[in-house]
Design a protein that fits this description.
The complex is a heterodimer of chains A (500) and B (163). By secondary structure, chain A is mainly alpha-helical. Chain A is built from 22 helices and 2 strands. Chain A is globular, with a radius of gyration of 23 Å. In chain A, 61% of the residues are buried. Chain B has 163 residues and is mainly alpha-helical. Chain B is built from 7 helices and no strands. Chain B has helices at 3-7, 9-12, 17-39, 52-70, 86-105, 108-120, 128-149. In chain B, helix 5 runs antiparallel to helix 6 and helix 6 packs antiparallel against helix 7. Classes of the chains: A mainly alpha (500), B mainly alpha (163). At the A-B interface, helix 8, helix 9, helix 18, helix 19 and helix 20 of A face helix 1, helix 3, helix 4, helix 5 and helix 6 of B.
Chain lengths: 500, 163
């Protein structure tokens, strides 16, 4: 199948009226939640999973993807206008973007953010299309050892993403893996950790866990300081960047896009890192670095391009290998699994319409976002004045109806409440929920591949590190882990030393 | 950065979060590990039984939990720690369960109204008027989206034998 054929399949799938509608809905919802602080893309996608599951696999993946990259656009709007990044990857944008807004240049800053994002989105879509086939071809050669390596690398990367202590992130990851094992053992049919409850024989409900740990826990957390939200409505006049602006942003956008596309592919790195790196690069290359932080338009263009490119190329490991690069991708994998699609290299071959349709929809979605965001920015800003005490009862209601409607099972509502409270308690203890969710999704896969591998290798664990690709992947995971723990080892040694 | 800067920390208000987190991990690991050892077949490395992988993970979790507990207090966090919003925590934590109870006996619409009414009071800004408006508004919206839009199968109202 040639490149052109793939694009034709993709665009013909993505441009059916239904899929266009859900692409638009996804982009719209994404922009909304990107603008509204207090609810991130992970929580929003978790809460929309029940709705997505009623759609065809294509429509649901297209919508969920739209929410994810839509949130990148929306997040930058609030970062620029009120210095509140609606979404973590927009934190860098706030540095210069808000300064520009204070100088009365909010319009051009918003326009540059949107144009940079659109350019990056277009390029990243092409990157995915080009990289997908060779990567899948490699992945098809993978045996159990390689899969174990890949999954371990993905899991360890999620630890990198988590804030705070590495040890706690690792422990929470293992907790997630264990939770994933609850239910019926696929090899023997034995009931594991079901406490004799029939409701647990299929395992814990993924949707309930995700909404509880991300959505509900987040709501409780936001109630810690209700009064914090300050809203400043600003009038925006004149969107078009000047000729001088265009000259300044051209190369930063291109460099940001390249950097973002590259970093996005690395599991765990993603959009946030890309944005920071792109900003740092521009500051270094600039002849006038002192302007950065005081309203340099390049300081908006580069990180915005980078985070959008990174958000999009982070689909590559998910689509080609079935390995999620972050918790949003874990949710999408969960959605695919529930719909009976096994994520991994076979998706391209068996579901070409799903695969290429999703990729093509990203470009269409980016175009929609450009049109949605620029002319309608005034409406988005007004949304900021919706008070949180009106929002969260609706969030709770939607979450409960959603969870209940997936299975019609009251037990899942108990799971939802438990993981809501538990997720909040763990976050108070400095443990983030992202590794838990990844562990939960990947736990069963890891066990299956590991057990299969041990059978093939006659019970010799060393075989996992003797095959070149898996050795490489496991080595990378080990390096990552060592790189993470070195500072803490040093710190602890110093501590012991000083207390002696 | 210097050592002495860290050491003063413990005296003011000992941060027990690592200790609590560590104990949680250890006890969870013990619970999973003991259940697996007691109830599940371990098998051998060649032919792993259903208990093998869980036991390995439980052991790993216990070790990590011990390490977390032993790691002492974190250096003072940059952000201010706000008090736990107990009222919100309790109301929001019980709301899905209240929803569950009402949806079985009375149907979807009363269940939505119940959860919205309860959760509105999680905010300190709640007033009876706001709660009533929210109940009406969110219930109408949810019924429109989920019942008529997505055709969720749960009945809107259940009229029990009592009336």
């Amino acid at each position: 199948m040639s490149f052109i054929d793939q694009l034709i399949i993709g665009f013909s799938t993505a441009s059916t009226p239904v899929n266009l509608l859900f692409c638009f809905l996804g982009a719209l919802i994404g922009t909304l939640i990107g603008v509204l602080p207090g609810i991130g893309p992970t929580a929003a996608i978790a809460m929309l999973l029940p709705i997505a599951l009623t759609l065809t696999p294509e429509a649901s993946l297209i919508m969920l993807a739209g929410i994810y990259y839509g949130a990148q656009y929306g997040g930058s709007t609030t970062a620029i206008l009120i210095n509140v990044p609606g979404e973590s990857s927009a934190a860098v944008t706030a540095l210069d973007g808000h300064q520009l807004a204070r100088q009365g240049r909010a319009g051009p800053a918003l326009a540059v953010a949107a144009i940079g994002s659109f350019f990056a989105g277009t390029v990243a879509t092409l990157v995915i299309a080009v990289a997908a086939l060779p990567l899948t071809a490699i992945a098809l050669q993978f045996g159990p050892a390689e899969y174990v390596g890949l999954i371990v690398l993905g899991l360890i990367s999620s630890v990198v993403l988590a804030h705070g202590s590495v040890l706690k992130a690792l422990a929470i990851l293992v907790f997630g893996l264990l939770l994933g094992l609850i239910g019926t053992d696929i090899y023997t049919g034995a009931q594991r950790f079901t406490l004799g409850l029939l409701q647990l024989s299929d395992g814990l409900n993924f949707v309930a866990i995700a909404i509880g740990a991300f959505g509900i826990a987040e709501v409780i957390k936001n109630l810690e300081n209700e009064d914090q939200r300050a809203t400043i409505a600003k009038r925006i006049t004149g969107l078009m960047p000047t000729r001088e602006d265009w000259r300044k942003i051209t190369f930063p956008i291109i460099r940001g896009t390249a950097l973002g596309s590259l970093l996005g592919v690395l599991p765990g790195a993603g959009a946030v890192l890309a944005a920071f790196a792109a900003y740092a690069v521009e500051k270094k290359l600039s002849r006038t670095p002192e302007r950065f932080g005081r309203g340099a338009i390049e300081g908006v263009a580069a990180p915005e391009s980078a985070n959008n490119a990174g958000a999009q190329t982070s689909f590559i490991p998910m689509l080609t290998l079935g390995i999620p690069a972050n918790s949003v991708m874990a949710l999408m994998i969960g959605a695919l699994v529930i719909q009976g699609i096994v994520p991994g290299p076979n998706v391209v071959k068996e579901q070409p319409a799903l695969f290429w349709g999703t990729i093509a929809s990203m470009w269409i979605g980016n175009l929609m976002l450009l049109l949605l965001n620029l002319p309608l920015v005034g409406i988005w800003v007004r949304l900021l004045s919706i008070p949180y005490y009106v929002l969260f009862p609706a969030i709770l209601a939607f979450a409960s109806i959603g969870v209940y409607s997936v299975s019609g099972n009251v037990f899942d509502l108990i799971t939802l409440a438990t993981f809501g409270i538990g997720g909040y308690a763990l976050s108070r203890l400095g443990c983030e929920p992202a590794p838990l969710l990844l562990g939960f999704v990947l736990g069963p896969m890891l066990e299956e591949q590991f057990r299969r591998g041990m059978m093939i290798f006659d019970g010799n664990v060393l075989m996992f590190v003797q095959r070149p690709i898996s050795a490489l992947l496991l080595g990378a995971a080990a390096l990552l882990l060592m790189g993470l723990s070195v500072p803490s080892i040093i710190k602890r040694r110093e501590k012991v030393f000083s207390e002696n | 950065m210097h050592q002495s800067a860290h050491r003063g920390n413990g005296r003011k208000r000992p941060d027990t979060s690592n200790l609590i987190a560590g104990l949680f991990f250890v006890s969870t690991g013990v619970a999973f590990g003991a259940t697996a050892l007691w109830k599940l077949d371990l098998g051998s490395a060649l032919q792993m039984g259903p208990g093998y992988f869980p036991v390995v993970l439980s052991a790993l979790m216990i070790v990590l939990g011990l390490a977390v507990a032993a790691s002492g207090a974190d250096p003072a966090p940059d952000e201010v720690r706000h008090p736990v919003p107990w009222r919100g925590l309790i109301l929001i934590g019980t709301a899905p369960i209240a929803f569950a109870a009402v949806v079985i006996f009375l149907g979807l619409a009363p269940a939505i109204a119940t959860i919205v009414g309860l959760v509105t009071y999680a905010s300190r800004r709640a007033t009876p008027k706001l709660a009533l408006l929210m109940m009406l508004g969110v219930t109408a919206l949810s019924v429109a989206v989920f019942k008529f839009g997505l055709e969720v199968s749960a009945p809107l109202f259940i009229f029990g034998s009592g009336g």
